[in-house]
Design brief:
By secondary structure, the chain is mainly beta. It has one helix and twelve strands, in the order ββββββββββαββ. The strands form three sheets. The chain has a five-stranded antiparallel β-sheet with strand order 8-9-10-11-12, with no helix packed on it. A four-stranded antiparallel β-sheet has the order 4-5-6-7.
Length: 155
């Protein structure tokens, strides 16, 4: 359920997660983008974001109102992903026994800052009873570089 108990999130073996109206049972949004079965999912404490995790090794963050994919987090053998209680972190847990905490900005009214922030993040690794910052994997950093503005060459 979302925080207002008006929407329900389900996950499926058909590689999707779906958001349903809790009262009518009507499908509101289908979240499509995982390459394999979606194991888990949950709403952000503010209700405007959803996180899903899949055996494809990704956790994806979606806009809960429009279904737009905002970003993904890669971790081998991913089994779980959930928002922290204040919504500023995502915890991912892997079947290899490791877990990571991914810092996010506070929930904005516009999801674009989260999408930009997720493109390159610094995870924290939990190993036993120790928490430490991990170096970001360059393969996970998908910084978008807009094209350079056109210049007037006739000058």
């Amino acid at each position: 359920f979302d925080p207002s108990s008006t929407r329900v999130l389900t996950t499926s073996g058909d590689h999707t997660a779906k958001i349903w109206d809790a009262r009518s049972g009507a499908l509101l949004i289908s979240l499509e983008g995982h390459a394999h079965q979606v194991n888990r999912g949950g709403f952000h404490p503010g209700g405007s974001l959803v996180v899903t995790s899949s055996i494809d090794g990704t956790a994806k963050i979606w806009g809960a109102r429009d279904g737009r994919l905002l970003g993904d987090i890669h971790q081998p053998w991913l089994g779980e992903a959930t928002f922290g209680p204040d919504g500023t972190r995502v915890l991912t847990a892997s079947l290899d026994g490791t877990a990571k905490i991914w810092e996010l900005p506070a929930e904005p009214t516009d999801p674009d800052p989260i999408a930009r922030f997720i493109r390159c993040r610094i995870p924290f690794r939990i190993a036993g009873d120790h928490l430490s910052a991990a170096r970001p994997d360059p393969r996970q950093c998908r910084t978008h570089h807009p094209p350079a503005p056109a210049t007037n060459r006739s000058e």
